Amino acid sequence: MKEPLHLFKIGGAILEDPEALEETLGFFSNLPGRKLLVHGGGRRANQMSRQLSIEPNMHEGRRITDSATLEVVVMVYAGLENKKVVALLQALNCNAIGLSGADGNVILAEKRPVKAIDYGYVGDVKKVNTQSIHTLLEAGLAPVFCAITHNGQGQLLNTNADTIAAELAIALAGQYQASLYYCFEKPGVMTDIDDVHSVIRYLDPELYTAYREQGIIAEGMIPKLDNAFRALKAGVASVHIGDRKSLALGRATQLVWTTEFPE
Ligand code: ADP
Question: How far is residue 261's CA from residue 48's CA, in Å, rounded to a whole number?
């Protein structure tokens, strides 16, 4: 029997809301057994960029990372946000250790090839080395990853946090019974974004395609779900999407292969 492992990704809106962050980290710190956290941090990076007179440049919701922007995101994600989360977890008696993908050589990425758009220093994950994470988990530590990777040749890269969470879950699914939680500010994937009672309890690929085509599932939820289904397909035991409360109560969205027999 594989040991259970909880992988928990927290979104940008939670990071910016002190109350939601404290509640979410409280929930995370109470999860039994081995656990790992991944965080984004986009909104704070935009604010810091502007303070430094570097105007954020986005294309279809994705950040264009030139060298000045890379310095900002490394400072904000791997510094400010990562250490803030670690310190809050320590205050909750959760022995967290903050990492980027370069630490322990955990996440190797490759600079995205330039096609129609040059995304700059954005990394696509190539390889996850699980040995260092395994060592930390077995020592009782909770690794906290920010969305920074490296290319193994001294170059840091900016990588989507949802992708990092999926890649870590996939790589660790060989050793652990991995459950992946995408925690954001809404109670789940919804049929009506303004109605908290419209959470889709079980989402399969067919329903996902239909809702996406109707524009019911849109924006950041599309890459999130693409990552989430990829993780499920690659052997991650379960994938859940919701806020702290819905995840705790088992009322968040769970991904399944078919909604015909959800349990
Ligand atoms: P994160 O905060 O985890 O980085 P994103 O901002 O990338 O997440 O994606 C989550 C966003 O997706 C939500 O804030 C919401 O506005 C949007 N979204 C689009 N369609 C839906 C939907 N059907 N249900 C829930 N959220 C949705």
Answer: 48
**What does the pLDDT read at residue 135?**
98
- Whether 263 is in a domain gets the answer no
pLDDT above 60 for 132:
yes
State in Å: Cα 67 to ligand 1 middle. Answer: 28
CATH number of 15's domain: 3.40.1160.10
Q: How far is the CA of 45 from the centre of ligand 1 (A)?
A: 18
* 59 inside domain: yes
**Average pLDDT of the segment spanning 206-225:** 97
pLDDT (0 to 100) of residue 56: 87
Ligand 1-lining residues (CB < 6 angstroms) = 11-13, 40, 184, 186, 189-190, 193, 216-221, 224
Establish if 260 belongs to a structural domain.
no
Ligand 1 centre to CA of 221 (Å) is 4
C-beta separation of 11 from 40 below 8 A: yes
Whether the per-residue pLDDT at 84 is higher than 60: the answer is yes
- Secondary structure letter of residue 64 according to DSSP: -
77 Cα–ligand 1 center, Å: 20
* Torsion angles phi and psi, residue 119, rounded to 5: -80, -5
Domain that holds residue 232: 3-255
Give a yes or no: residue 244 inside a domain.
yes
Amino acid (one-letter) located at 137:
L
Indicate the number of domains in the chain. Answer: 1
